[in-house]
């Protein structure tokens, strides 16, 4: 269950992800329009007047064109980005459904219709990870395992990246990797 009625919080993973490029770890960000300080996330609009989709596509191409499986997913990812989905929550849901399907996960993704305070949803992780703090969850649990990354020889294994990185580098084996941890 995803919280669909919380207030949008700036600078969270709700509008960004981290990938590995030839320059190192890079944040991809979806620009948003929020007109009120306490705006429900389901009302936050994606801002399409800047060329962020083109920049994102170019960055993804540069980062993953040498990966083993990127070509299998590229057109579907770009189709979602180019669709012009107006609301951030809906864009996130489309991307989440794409990624879970390609990972082979049988998951029903539901969104709350009323606000569920923190801690009331099962497995409530909405505030556990933040781009502002180091993500050491897997490391702390002893579950951080390296996998092949295109720029791994240059930077070593880089943890805390988008699941897209795992999918592009491991393809259908990504689910086996996840099950191991």
Low-pLDDT regions: none
Tell me the Rg in angstroms.
17 Å
Number of helices: 7
Major pleated sheet? 2 strands, antiparallel
Helix and strand pattern: EEEEHHHHHHH
Strands of the largest sheet, in order across it? 1-2
Shape: globular
Helix amount: 25-40%
The structure class reads mainly alpha
Mean pLDDT over the residues: 89
C-alpha end-to-end distance: 22 Å
**Oligomer designation:** single chain
Hey, roughly how much beta strand do the residues contain? 5-15%
**Whole-number count of domains:** 1
Record field, number of beta strands: 4
What does this molecule look like?
There is one protein chain. This protein is mostly helical and 181 residues long. The chain has one domain. It is built from seven helices and four strands. The strands form two sheets. The protein has a two-stranded antiparallel ribbon. Helix 1 runs antiparallel to helix 2 and helix 2 packs antiparallel against helix 3. The model has no long low-confidence stretch (mean pLDDT 89).
């Amino acid at each position: 269950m995803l919280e669909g009625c919380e207030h949008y919080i700036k600078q969270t993973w709700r509008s960004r992800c981290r990938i590995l490029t030839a320059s190192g770890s890079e944040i991809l960000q979806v620009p948003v329009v929020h007109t009120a300080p306490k705006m429900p996330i389901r009302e936050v609009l994606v801002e399409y007047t800047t060329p962020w989709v083109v920049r994102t596509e170019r960055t993804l191409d540069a980062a993953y064109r040498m990966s083993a499986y990127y070509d299998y997913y590229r057109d579907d990812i770009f189709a979602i980005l180019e669709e012009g989905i107006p609301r951030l929550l809906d864009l996130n849901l489309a991307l989440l459904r794409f990624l879970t399907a390609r990972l082979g996960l049988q998951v029903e993704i539901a969104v709350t219709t009323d606000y569920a305070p923190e801690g009331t949803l099962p497995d409530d992780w909405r505030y556990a990870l933040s781009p502002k703090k180091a993500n050491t969850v897997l490391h702390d649990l002893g579950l951080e395992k390296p996998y092949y990354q295109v720029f791994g020889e240059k930077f070593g294994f880089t943890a805390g990246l988008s699941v897209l990185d795992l999918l592009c580098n491991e393809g259908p084996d990504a689910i086996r990797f996840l099950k191991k941890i």
